[in-house]
Amino acid sequence: MMTAQKLDDLIDQLPKVRGTLTVDAPIARLTWFRVGGNAEVLFEPADQDDLQAFLQALPLEIDVTVLGGASNLIVRGGGIAGVTIRLGRPFAQISVNEMTIEAGAAAMDITVSRKARDCGIGSLEFLNGIPGSIGGAVRMNAGAYGSEVKGILLEATAIDRQGNLYTSMAPGLGFTYRHSDAPNDWIFTSATLQGSEDSSEAIAARMEEIATAREGSQPIRERTGGSTFKNPEGQKAWQLIDKSGCRGMQFGGAQVSNTHCNFLINTGAATAADLEGLGEEVRRRVENETGVLLEWEIKRIGALPVVGVPS
Q1: What is the pLDDT of residues 301-311, one digit of tens each?
Q2: Which is catalytic among the residues 178, 214, 284, 300?
Q3: Which of 15, 53, 61, 139 is most buried, by the most CB atoms less than 10 A from its CB?
C-alpha cells in the first residue's frame, strides 16, 4: 500500500464526483469470506453518468479495480491499490417490460429471480442458486442447475477504463463455460434478460427445488464463496478434490467444506492468505493424485500483505 504522501498525491488526482469517495476503506466486511486488506480509495458512484465522467477524467496511470457482489472473491491482505469501484443501490434497480427484465449490475441474482417469479417470467429460476450480482454473473457467464447467463442475456451495457459507453448483444460477448470475452476493463452497469411466460406458481416451485438442493449440498450458512474451482471438461471438481483426500482439510483458519468440497470456508479466524494457501494446496494434491490441474473460479485480487501484518 502507499505511503501517506503518495496516498495524498493520489487523492489530489481524483476527479470531483457526486457519489462517495472513501480513503483507506475497509473491504473485508463487503466480501462473503470477510477477509482482506483495505482499498486505498473506494468510489461508489451516484449513477452511470457519475461513473462515466469519473473514468473519463481519471488519469490512466491510476489502477482501477471493480468490486461486485464479492461472493466469488478473495481480497488479499495487502489491500487494493488505486481506486476500487463498487456499484451500490443506484445500480440495483430492476424493471420489467413484458417478458424482459432490465437489471442493474448491482442487483442480486436472487432478487432478479424473485422479481421474475412475481411477474410470471420463467427461465430465470437458476439465478436463485447463484450468489452474487448481475454484473458479475454477466462477466463470468455464471450458471447453475443446467442453465447459464448466456441463455437468457439479450444485451449488456458497460463502461471501459476511458469512460466510453458500450452496449453489446449477448453473442458479441463470446460466452463459454464460466467465461466471457468482454474486455477486462469493462465495468458492466446493466443487463437486459429474456424470459418466457409461465405461471408464478410453477416458477416458485422450481425455485424452491433449487433452494432446497442448494441448502442440502452447499455450506450456505458459513463464511464462504461460490465454487472455488471450475469443473474440468467432462469432470466434476468436487469429485477430484474428494478423491485426492482434501475434504475437510484445514490451513490456518480456512477449511475445505465437508458439505461440498469445492467450497472453502472461513471458520472464523481465517486470513486471505489461509484461504488462498488452502486452495493452492488443494490444486497441488489434485494434480499429484489425478494429473488434473484445477483452475480457480474464485477471483483473487490485491497485494500480498507485508510480513507480520495480518490479512
Answers
A1: 999 886 554 45
A2: 178
A3: 139
CA 70, 82, 271: angle at the middle one, nearest 5?
45
Q: Is 297 a catalytic residue?
A: yes
- Whether 310 is in a domain gets the answer no
Out of 89, 107, 138, a domain closes at 89
Q: Round to whole Å and give the CA distance between 213 and 25.
A: 37
If asked whether residues 245 and 276 sit together in one domain, one would say yes
Which of 44, 148, 276, 297 is labelled catalytic? 297
Residues 117 and 207 both lie in one domain = yes
Here the cell at position 104 is: 442493474
Burial (CB count <10 Å: 0-12, 13-18, 19+), residue 308: exposed
- Asked if residue 295 has pLDDT above 70, the reply is yes
**Nine-digit cell string for 19:** 457519489
The pair phi, psi for residue 232, each rounded to 5°, is: -60, 155
Mean pLDDT of 220-240: 93
Above 80 in pLDDT, residue 190?
yes
Which cell numbers in the block locate residue 247?
475434504
Task: Judge whether 178 counts as a catalytic residue.
Answer: yes
Average pLDDT estimate for 273-296: 98
pLDDT in tens, 39-77: 999 999 999 999 999 999 999 999 999 998 888 999 999
**Does some domain include residue 53?**
yes
Output the pLDDT for position 220. Answer: 83
Residues 158/138, Cβ–Cβ less than 8 Å: no
Question: 15 and 62 share a domain?
Answer: yes
Detail the DSSP E strand segments found in the chain: 20-25, 39-44, 64-67, 73-75, 80-86, 94-97, 100-104, 121-122, 143-144, 147-148, 153-159, 165-169, 187-194, 196-197, 223-224, 250-251, 254-256, 264-266, 299-301
Please give the pLDDT value at position 153: 98
Angstrom distance (rounded) from CA 278 to CA 299: 14
- Give me the catalytic one of 227, 244, 257, 311: 227
